[in-house]
Amino acid sequence: MISVKNLTKAYHDKEVLSNINFEIEDGDIVGLVGPNGVGKTTLLSCMTGLMKPDKGSVTMANELFTNTQMYRKIGFMQDNSVLYSYLTGYDHLAYVAYAQKLSLSTIDQVSKRVGNYDYLHKKVGEYSLGMKQHLLFAAAILHNPEVLLLDEPFNGLDPTSLIRIREIIRELAEDKTTVFLSSHNLNELDRMTRHIFFLKNGQIMYRDLVKHQDFSYLITVADQPDYQKYNSFITEEINEHQFIILKENLDQVLTLLNQDGHSITDIERTQFSSENLYREIYQESSN
Question: How far is CA 265 from the centre of its chain?
């Protein structure tokens, strides 16, 4: 479990995090979303004690972040600036294994699972971005943590690696590991969770996409309809030929379109996504 209470952090008198409060239950996967510079990495760093907050407390796996025993129970995947180019991937994982009092055999087991076993003994300076991501992820889960914090885990991954990492995250959550991950990849977040935190103006805005499980429909027509006539049914206009309606309005809208002589070229079922909320939360404020 993760519990954050009244967490506050300022840089040069500007609050990046302002009195943040939230809880995440055991085994939950929660996404953290926001544009660059809103404080996502700062939040993760403060939660792990790598950065000292100005105020507030964090408890993870029943340990306060001020207690070094917490590091036995949590895994944190940072960006690749924490890697050393002159060391091999094995060197990095051996250090983690030593710190966590693990058998070195764990390195091979986890590396085969993650997919970085074949280049484990190459120097990190020879790694691609995707290879570095594999190594960072392997280091974060090496000790089978109770809480897993991931900062942009999908950067630089090819589709095969994306699928593998996604499946591992799900497996860990099924074993009651609590996962909190920051990502710009909204499609991947939608595949893993319906629980999303949006960070804006130093505050967490929680959105439970479980409430949006109902399907909508994307309607494509050959010619532009009179949108004013259909305004009460349309939830979003995509362009002059496409719009989205709720499923309960489908039959009525199709009847009206046919009566008005509009040619329907496609009907696609779609689900409310984190991208919809992202546009609602961030793009409206930028207009």
Answer: 35
Based on the fold, state whether residues 123 and 224 are members of the same structural domain. Answer: no
Average pLDDT, the chain: 89
Is a pLDDT exceeding 60 seen at residue 287? no
Distance (Å, rounded) from C-alpha 253 to C-alpha 257?
6
**Residues 6 or more apart whose Cβ sits within 8 Å of residue 211:** none
Q: What CATH number is given to the structural domain containing 8? A: 3.40.50.300
- Same domain membership, residue 69 and residue 45: yes
Taking the C-alpha atoms of residue 86 and residue 72, their distance in angstroms, rounded to an integer, is 27
Range of the domain at 219: 215-271
Instruction: Give the total residue count for the chain.
Output: 287
pLDDT per residue as tens digits for the range 22-61: 999 999 999 999 999 899 999 999 999 899 999 999 999 8
Mean pLDDT of the region 185-200 = 87
**Neighbouring C-alpha atoms within 13 Å toward the C-beta of 178:** 15
Encoded amino acid at 252, one letter: Q
Contact predicate 88/122, CB 8 Å: yes
| Cα torsion 72, 78, 84, 88: sign | positive
Q: What is the pLDDT of residues 228-256, one digit of tens each?
A: 788 788 877 777 888 888 777 888 888 88
CB 7, CB 19: distance < 8 Å: yes
Confidence of residue 170 (pLDDT cuts 50, 70, 90): very high
